[in-house]
Amino acid sequence: MNDDLVIVVVAGLVATACGLLGPFLVLRRIALLSDAVSHAVLPGIVAVWLVGQTRAPLPVIAGAAAFAVLCVLAIDALRASGLVASDAAIALVFPALFSLGVLGVTHFADGIHLDLDSTIYGEIAFTPFDTVTLGGVEVARAAVVLAVVVLANLALIALLWKELKATTFDPEFSATVRLRPRLLSRLLLVAVAVTAVAAFEAVGAILVVTMLIVPAATAYLLTDRLVVMVGLTVGIGWIGAVAGHRIALGLDSSIAGAMGLVCAACFVLALVGSPRYGPAARAMRHRTRAVDTAGAGPRPG
Amino acid sequence: MDRLSSLLGLPYTDTVVVVGAIVLGVTSGVLGAFAVLRRRSLVGDAIAHSTLPGVCVAFLVAGVKDVPGLLLGAAVAGLVAALLMVGIERAGRIRPDAAIGVVLSGFFSLGVVLLTHIASTDDADQAGLERYLFGQAAGLLERDVAVMAALGAAALLVVGVGRRALTTTLFDPAYAGSIGLPVRALEALMTGLLVVAVVIGVRLVGAILMVAMLVIPTVTARQLVDRFTRVLPLAGVVGAAVGATGALVATRAELPTGPVVVLAGFAVAVVALLLAPGRGVAWQAGRLAARRRRVCEDALLSDPGAPDRGRRDRRTRAALRRRGLLAPDGALTAAGHAARSDLAERRALWSAWLAHGASVTLPDAREPDPADLRGSLGDDAVSQLKALAGGDSGSGDHGRARAPEAR
C-alpha cells in the first residue's frame, strides 16, 4: 500500500474513533477529563513495559485502561470530598500520574523503545513501516489496532445510543429510570482511554486530545441534533486528517501537529461563520428583530 | 549565589535550580490562588500549553535561545490564548471546558508544527528547545533565575497593591461592579498574573505539568486556613517548600526536576486533604462517626427493650454498658434513666424550637444546636420556649401562625 495513503487512513481512523466519543464529552462538559485521561495513561504504558517488557497492544491497552480508571476514580473521590472543585481535582490528579509516567520512562526505560517524545507528538510518519500480515496481505499494525478500536467505539455508541443520549442530556431523569449515569460516564471514559492508548503510538497524545475535543466542539456550533453532530464530528476529523497530511508534506513539518491545526482552523471558521450561532447570523437575527419591532409600531402602554 | 551554595552545601548548579524552584513555588502558589478560587484551574493548563508556539516564534525571530526573549514570546502567546478562551466563551455556544480544550490543542498543535519546522532547519542552537515541554532544570543559569525572580516580584507587588480590589472581584464580582470597580479589567489582570506565573514556571517544570504547580499550593493552603488574606501567603510558602524539596530530591537522585516537584506537591496536597485539622477527610469522618454513634445510643436509650438488630446495635449496647447506663441484663440503670429523661427533655425542647422558635426573643444572633439547645441558646430562651410550648399544648393549632407577642 502507498505510504501516504496508510498515514491518511491511520489518521482518519483516529479521527473516527475519537469523533464517535467526542460529542458526548463536549455535551457532558467533560472535554477536559479526556485531556486528563489521555495524559494519565502514560504510567500504565510504562508499567506494562517494566513488568512484561512488551508493547503488544492488548496488555498495553489493559494497563492504560487501569490507570485511566484510577485517574477518573481519583478525580471523583476528590470532588466527592467536597474540599476541591472539579477543575482543581483534575489539575491535581493528572499531572501527578503523568509525572509518575515521565519518571518511569526516564529512570527505568531510558534508551529503549519507549520514547517520551513519540507518546506526545506521535510519529505517524513511521506507521507504514510497522506492518503485520493479515490473511496474506501486509497491513500497517496501527491501522489494524485502530480499526478494532473504531469498531468497538461504534458498537458502544450504537448499542448504548439511547442510554448515552439520555444520560448526556438529562442525568437526573436517567437516574430515576435506572440508566446508571455514573456507570455510563465511566464506560465512556474507559473508551476514551482505550482510544487514546491505541492512537498514542500512531499520532501522539496531542492529536488524540485535539481529535476528541476540537471536531466535536466545531460540530456543536453547526447543529442541534446529536446524530448529525456525531456525523459532522467524524467528517471534520477526516478533513483534518487529509488536509493536515497535505499541509505537513508541503511544510515538511509534524503531521500530527498540522492535522491539529486544520481542525482548529475548522473550529475558528465555524465559530465565525456558523449559520446558526455565528456572530454574523446573530447580527442578522438581531436586525430582523429590530425591523420587526419597528414595523409593529409603538407599543401599547 | 556562591555564598548560598556553600551555605547549603550544594554544587553551584544545583543551588541555582533549587533557588529557581523556590521562586517558581512562591509565585505560582500566590498567583495560582486566583485561578483555583475562580474555578479556572485548567485555564492555567491551557496557558501553559499555549506558551509553546510563543517560544518557537521568539526563537525563530531572535535566532538564539535567549531566555528573556523566549519568556517574552511565551508571555505573549499565553496572553493571546487567555484572551481567545474568554472570547470563545463570550461568543455563547461553547462552554468553558470545550473552549479551554480547543485553545489548548490548537496552540499546542501550532507549537508542535513550529517545533518540527525549527528542527528541520539544522540550526545547531535549536537542540533542546523541545525539552521545554517537560521542563529542564539542568542548564538553568543564575541570570535566568534573576529574570524569573524579577518577574515574580513585580507580579507579587501588583497583588499586594491591588489585593482589596482583587479579593472583592474574586468573591463577589456583582458587588465589585456595583461599587464601581472595573471588574472586567481586574479579571483580565488576574489572567495576566496567571500568565506571568506560567511563564516563570514553564522553563523549570514544563508545559504539561505547570498546572499542578498553580493548583497544589492553593488546595493545600485552603485546607489549613479559612481567610483569603492568609491563603495567599501560605500558598506562597507551601509552593516554596514544595519547590525546594522537589528540586533537592531531584538533584540528589539525578531525576528530572519537574515530575519530582509535582509528585512532592501532590503528596503534600493529599496529606493536607486527608489530615488537615477540622477540614480534612479524616476529621470529617471522625465527626460523622461520632454523630452516628450518638444517634445509635440515643435510639437505644429511648427504647432499651428493642430487639437486637445486629453488630452495630451490640456495639452500642456495649458502649452504654461501659458508661454505666445499661445494666448487664439489658435494662437501664439509674444513671441510664436519668440520661433517658434528659434526652426526652432535649427532644421536646427541639420540637418546641421548631414550632415556636420564631417568637423567642434572643439578645443576639445565636445558632441553635439540636443536640444542646440550652447550651447554644441560653437558659432564658429555653424558659421562653417551655412557656410557649406549654401554652400551646392542647389548643390544637400551630403557634407559629399566630405569633404571640414576646413576653
TrEMBL record, chain A:
Entry superkingdom: Bacteria
Cellular localisation: Cell membrane
Database matches in InterPro entries: ABC_BtuC-like, ABC_TroCD
Family according to the record: Belongs to the ABC-3 integral membrane protein family.
Protein's organism: Pseudonocardia bannensis
Entry keywords, A to Z: Cell membrane, Membrane, Transmembrane, Transmembrane helix, Transport
Keyword Transport on entry: yes
Protein name (database record): Metal ABC transporter permease
Membrane topology term: Multi-pass membrane protein
Predominant location: membrane
GO biological process, alphabetically ordered: response to zinc ion; transmembrane transport
Transmembrane segments: 6-25, 32-52, 58-78, 90-109, 139-161, 187-214, 226-243, 255-274
GO CC annotation, single: ATP-binding cassette (ABC) transporter complex
Coiled-coil ranges from the UniProt annotation: none
UniProtKB/TrEMBL annotation, chain B:
Pfam families, per the entry: ABC-3
BP-aspect Gene Ontology terms: response to zinc ion; transmembrane transport
Membrane topology value: Multi-pass membrane protein
Subcellular location: Cell membrane
CC annotations in GO: ATP-binding cassette (ABC) transporter complex
Biased composition (Basic and acidic residues): 395-407
Main location: membrane
SUPFAM superfamilies: ABC transporter involved in vitamin B12 uptake, BtuC
Protein name per Swiss-Prot or TrEMBL: Metal ABC transporter permease
